[in-house]
Design a protein that fits this description.
The structure is a single chain. The chain is of the alpha/beta class and 246 residues long. It is 30% helix and 31% strand. The chain contains seven helices and 15 strands. The strands form four sheets. It has a five-stranded parallel beta sheet with strand order 2-1-3-4-5.
């Protein structure tokens, strides 16, 4: 399967390096290497691509801002010399994030991730001309800020999430990660088939629930309240997953 791609990079040396890397991968088809986001927007209008290699810091508008205004995004791999943009990139559902200087090995890993996602979306034929594309797999991790660090949190490890005003505490076995983020923003990053909100201050992982009573959920030694606001959607979620509430 060929993957059409577009490079957006304002630094000539970095742009040339990315072109060389693309040329080494037989199934990558380079449509163009652009030096500015505005040029890239024009190319994308005329020739949609599968994959966008996008520098973050550029004149006119940043790569992040370009992503926000694109009406239809291809798969995106961000490239930058600054790690602080990683969280924002993952919030925009980029496939990967490459820190400069970019090695060929790391580049190939990013391309393989894109290839896997495209394969998951491709229709499979079984005795018919076409079939529905396979759903994209749920994300297995996310990055959150913990003080001055970016911390990788495995989504299957999350037990529950606790709101603390402008902060949230992500509880995983043996510790918690506190990050400056709104509950709503974090909730939108979680797969709704595995997590459910039970209170303004709590989101719980379905697989972590040990028992449920009328007005609380038990996760290990922790008892969390179910508020009246979320009782009905929580009940529907639980019944859908074959639990019975008291």
């Amino acid at each position: 399967m060929n993957i059409s791609c577009l490079i957006v990079e304002d630094e000539p040396l970095a742009r040339n390096l990315m072109e060389q890397y693309v040329a080494k991968v037989p199934y990558l088809q380079l449509i163009k290497a652009c030096s500015s986001p505005l040029d890239a927007m024009e190319v994308l209008r005329q020739h949609p691509v599968d994959l966008l290699f996008l520098d973050v810091q550029m004149p006119e508008i940043t790569g992040i801002n370009l992503l926000r205004i694109l009406p239809k995004r291809p798969f995106v791999v961000l490239t930058t010399a600054y790690s602080e943009y990683a969280l924002e990139g993952y919030e925009l559902d980029v496939v990967d994030y490459l820190l400069k200087p970019i090695t060929l090995e790391r580049f190939l890993k990013a391309v393989e991730k894109v290839s896997q996602r495209l394969s998951a979306q491709s229709p499979k034929t079984v005795g018919v001309e076409s079939a529905q594309p396979a759903p994209e797999p749920a994300p297995e991790f996310m990055f959150v800020k913990d003080g001055t660090r970016l911390v990788r949190v495995r989504i299957p490890d999350i037990l529950y999430i606790e709101g603390l005003k402008d902060y949230v505490a992500i509880h995983i076995p043996g510790k918690r990660v506190v990050t400056l983020q709104r509950m709503k923003a974090l909730e939108e990053q979680l797969p709704d088939s595995r997590f459910i909100r039970i209170h303004n201050s709590y989101i719980v992982a379905f697989d972590a629930i040990d028992s449920i009573q009328k007005d609380k959920v038990q996760i290990g030694t922790v008892s969390l309240p179910i508020s009246d606001t979320y009782r009905k959607p929580f009940r529907e979620f639980i019944e859908k997953n074959n639990w019975m509430m008291e």
